[in-house]
Amino acid sequence: MREITTIGFATFGEAIRRRILVIFLLFAIISIVGSQVFKTFSPGEADKFVVDLGLNSIKWFSMLIAILLGAVMIPQEIERKTLHTVLAKPVGRGQFVLGKFFGTCLAVLFNAALMGVAFAVVYVIQQQGKDLDPALLLQFVLTCAELVLFISIIIFLSTFASTVFVLVVSFCVIVLGSTSSFLGKIPAESWISQVVFITIGALAPNFEVFDLSRAILTHASVPPDLIYYPLTYAAMYTSIMLLLSFVVFNERQF
Amino acid sequence: MASDPPADTALTGRKAGGESSPSALTSSAAANGRPVIECIGLSKCYRLALGYEVEALSGLDLEVRTGEIFAIVGPNGSGKTTTIKLLLGLIFPTGGEAYVLGEPPRSRRAKRRIGFVPEGPFFYQHLSGEEVVRFYGRLCGIRGRDLRDRADELLKLVGMSNRRDVVMSQCSKGMVQRVGLAAALVNDPDVVLMDEPTSGLDPIGAKEIKDLIVRLRDAGKTVLLCSHLLEQVEEVCDRIAILHRGRRLAYGPLTEILQVKDETELVAADLPEEATAKLAGLSHRAEMRGGAHRFILKPEAGMFDAIEIVRASGGQLLSVGRIRESLEDAFIRSVMRTATSATEPVSTDAGDSTLPDRPVEQPESGGEPT
Description:
heterodimer, A: mainly alpha, B: alpha/beta, Rossmann fold, Alpha-Beta Plaits, 2 domains, four-stranded antiparallel sheet, 13 helices, 25% strand
């Protein structure tokens, strides 16, 4: 466990110093704060505009940060041979992968938290001092779970593929994950394409289960299953991805 | 670096992370009659595209014994780094076996007692030298005050104590190499594997590393050194293996591998011209080097006659004796012999089957691994 946290904190320290990450963070915060300015473009729906833009900024900028960090973490260690000195110590390959996963999650969630604080400030100003809607906090928790799941996919890919491949496939995963519920319903011309769509739909992560926007905008109470199901789903999907990562990384040669 | 006596405790000191004593592991390996490092027919093929394969290492047999400096030498692509990677479990053999401290290469128990200095190490750029040493110390299970003290000792040992706060991104190549050495020694290893440890260092830095290698041996550590810098290896190692294209060309104590030539060298200073001319007449090579005359005497020339010429002229005799070939000479001889064997036509005569399919070995005193 100590090995995992040692590698994780070193990864976190390295990650938060990346300029590209700071740039994305700034863009996200500008976007969240800018929603106060741009809400005038949607008169009568200012609340919806601020919430939509804020939550989407947190999610999509965090995903971009996850891709840019996760895609380089392991391939760069292999390329620079830092991995050799780490694995020459009494550190298991599984511990190394978990450490990288842990560090990447810390860095991404740290940035998401900063964006979340910016959003909370903007929201409270918009609501003229009213308390934060609890559904917003739940949405933030689910977004974090979604990010952890997404990072586990990136880490899995990066255990065997190059940075460019991981970047490309990660973007595809975002697209598939955001549309996976439609994939099985797409009318196919042949049974082969039908099977392909259904298979991809079943294997791709379903990011839609993490979306509480309807409950937030209607100020309805959030049923417990809308929280427990996505959290369980994220935990299981992440566990499977990490297990696959161990298996692949354990057989790799450096 | 070497002039810092208190730092020597860093080489002999504590045991990391409360784990089993390293000397216990070493001595258990020794008690079993097993060497510290053992390769038995170790082979590695890399698969390329279209089914092609490159044989990086072919049937390597070697033993490294407790407390010796063993060097694997050879040109680039000879299989040195491949051997180190196999011993660290970073790659897997396609044939044969390897053991470090009696354990398979991927054993974490053995890795607690191994230090590794890679060629041109690269560390997390945001960490300072001290933080790098601490990072690797934590990976070895060292914590708290022990870790702090250990980092202090090692940074002093490698001459980085005054520059401990410089982050890796601002360190010179030599500084990074020194930090790499400290990081490798943080767990007080019994076995230190070094891949081109003086790579990128200036002559002073290289000398310091060489001195440190000798001090490691003196402190009871076993050092396996890979290098293509033959002169440096020659100065420090006890036994060597010469590799070429993945094959072992020679193996054994340095003193046995380096042949004594049938030539006598005489070095003298303050020689008058007449004596110089006489000695030149007895030599097939004469040169001035560092203010002294160096003569390689002809085989038929009498060594005592030459000494008498120096004495009679009032010159100063600095040295006289048989010439031992350098490691570079031995290496080239081994490679040339292999090349000759490889180009020799294979006899179709059934009685003439003496053409070796493997390079001819040097005689050994230590015996082959079984």
